[in-house]
UniProtKB/TrEMBL annotation:
Organism in which the protein naturally occurs: Thermohalobacter berrensis
MF (Gene Ontology): ATP binding; ATP hydrolysis activity
Lineage: superkingdom: Bacteria
Sorted UniProt keywords: ATP-binding, Nucleotide-binding, Transport
Protein name: ABC transporter
Domain ABC transporter: 7-186
PANTHER family linked to this entry: BICARBONATE TRANSPORT ATP-BINDING PROTEIN CMPC (PTHR42781:SF8), SPERMIDINE/PUTRESCINE IMPORT ATP-BINDING PROTEIN POTA (PTHR42781)
């Protein structure tokens, strides 16, 4: 294992089995991602991008091949990886603040310091005034930012973004992409 590698994808294939038959979503894919790199997966709809991210995140087990994160084989979800889906998956019955801290709550890491960090993220992403609102009271872009905060709150070493900003307008998308680039390089 090369110490510079953050993610190693080795000969991964993924076949979905359904009642209609088999779909080969990924065929023998190998890819190394090094620490500090920002990598974009580009391809037409249905080419297997989300499937690959779910495999790296440990949510799906590949049909063949292996994935290593920091040299350890992925065998389930881990705190090293933050995964932001295409949809925001906010809980409608929790406020924006409560949604933002849910990962910390689940991992039993909700310290005063972390609460302050979440508050600062809410301010940075323009949601400070909306933290006691419910998701249904927010626009699509605001919801997406709340989902981003929920992911960043855990300070994941590796951030997987699955077209997470598609609901944002162009201007906000640029701002948030810049913010992420900056905070990842710190
Ligand atoms: N749970 C599933 N069961 C069966 N087939 C699936 C499942 N998830 C995805 N597929 C199929 O696997 C292929 C890859 O899907 P995937 O969602 O990974 O593509 P994608 O590149 O992320 O697409 P998009 O850009 O539209 O999000 C598609 O043909 C899709 O129909």
């Amino acid at each position: 294992m090369n110490p510079g590698k953050a993610v190693e994808i080795k000969n991964v294939s993924m076949i979905y089995h359904t009642l209609d038959g088999e779909t080969e979503a990924i065929k023998d894919l190998s890819l190394d991602i090094y620490h500090g790199e920002i990598v974009a997966l580009i391809g037409p709809s249905g080419c297997g991008k989300s499937t690959l991210l779910s495999i790296v995140a440990g949510l799906l087990k590949p049909s063949k091949g292996k994935v290593f994160v920091n040299g350890n084989e992925v065998k389930g979800t881990s705190g090293d990886i933050g995964y932001m889906f295409q949809r925001d998956h906010l809980f409608e019955w929790r406020t924006i603040y409560q949604n933002s801290i849910i990962g910390l709550e689940i991992q039993n890491k909700l310290t005063d310091e972390k609460k302050k960090f979440v508050e600062s993220l809410l301010d940075t992403y323009g949601l400070g005034e909306f933290k006691d609102h419910y998701p249904r009271q927010l626009s699509g872009g605001m919801r997406q930012r709340a989902a981003l905060i929920r992911t960043l709150a855990l300070k994941p070493e590796i951030l997987l973004l699955d077209e997470s900003f598609s609901a944002l307008d162009y201007q906000t998308r640029l701002t948030i992409a810049d913010e992420i680039g900056t905070c990842r390089s710190q």
